[in-house]
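This protein record is not my work; I was only asked to verify it. Take the sequence as given and treat only the tokens as open to question. I have pasted the whole thing underneath without changing anything:
***
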Amino acid sequence: MIYILSIIGVLILAALYRFFPNKKIFTYFCFLLIIVFCVSAFIQYKTSEQRIMTREQIEEIRLQQNIFGNWYAEYQKDIDALDRNWQLYYQIVESLKTAEIYEYSTYEQLQDLKLSAVDEQLKIYDLEVPKELDDECHILLAEVIKKTKIYSDAQVKIISAVCSAANPDNSENFDLQVLNKFIKEITIRESPAGLFTAKEISEIRDRLTVPGEGGKDEEL
């Protein structure tokens, strides 16, 4: 395509040369076009060169696609578990806001939720970056794990504190209103803003995409 455009450009310049009033300005104009053309051709060449991959390189990327895909599928299960814990926590908190009397079964629910949150926290801390991933993916995935640990820690901290405060045996003058106030304060103060890992995951998927196979990363 670039050669066809070059031929067309030469023909246009030849026609312009015949009618151009100032030949010196025309020469400068042509020289400038040549520079622009050379720079464009060089950029196109470098871009094409980067996209050319050997069979071994493509196979390596596909291998890493499978490794990351399997890891991410398991990781997503942990994220789902964290979400479920939060959903149950907020269900319990909302029920306490409208409760006329405090029921011991609510404390038992919080105890079970605390155990679930701690169990999930341990699973998060067992996460490791697959050794087969390249250095850049390793750095990105390590950041994902780090953020997830911080998020899980905050969840356990809040649920544990509320569970302890909700234990009627910890106070002779147990007050539901005081408990609700404490829950509101600690939830606002300690809740994480969110688990923002989309940037890192997106960059990993981009790195594990074979040029010309843009849809492959959607399977990860």
Summary: The CA atoms of residues 81 and 87 lie 10 Å apart. The first helix runs from residue 2 to 19.
